[in-house]
Design goal:
The chain is built from three helices and no strands. 86% of the residues lie in helices and 0% in strands. By secondary structure, the protein is mainly α.
């Protein structure tokens, strides 16, 4: 019983030491690339702006592609075409 507990404690300490060493290594590599907080904040700010602009452009392209594809499907029989035409008209009117 004592041996099992001692082994668990030893493994826990070993795992914690390895995790701490990995964390310190990652932090050291990060701070080697970016020495000042100002540089880090600026990098994250620019990165956020590019992420936002890319998201808007990507969303616009996806919506335009969906409207185009739905516009091609307007001629389907059985009321499906009328429903799709209603959706396309609604999207185009909201612009």
């Amino acid at each position: 019983m004592i041996k099992k507990t001692a082994k668990k404690v030893t493994n826990t300490i070993k795992d914690a030491n390895e995790a701490g060493a990995r964390r310190n290594l990652i932090e050291e590599l990060f701070y080697d690339l970016h020495r000042s907080r100002r540089q880090i904040y600026w990098l994250n700010f620019v990165r956020g702006i590019f992420f936002g602009v890319g998201s808007v452009i990507g969303g616009t392209l996806v919506v335009a592609l969906a409207v185009t594809i739905l516009g091609l499907l307007v001629d389907l029989p059985g009321g499906i075409g009328e429903f799709i035409e209603y959706i396309v008209d609604t999207v185009r009117q909201s612009r």
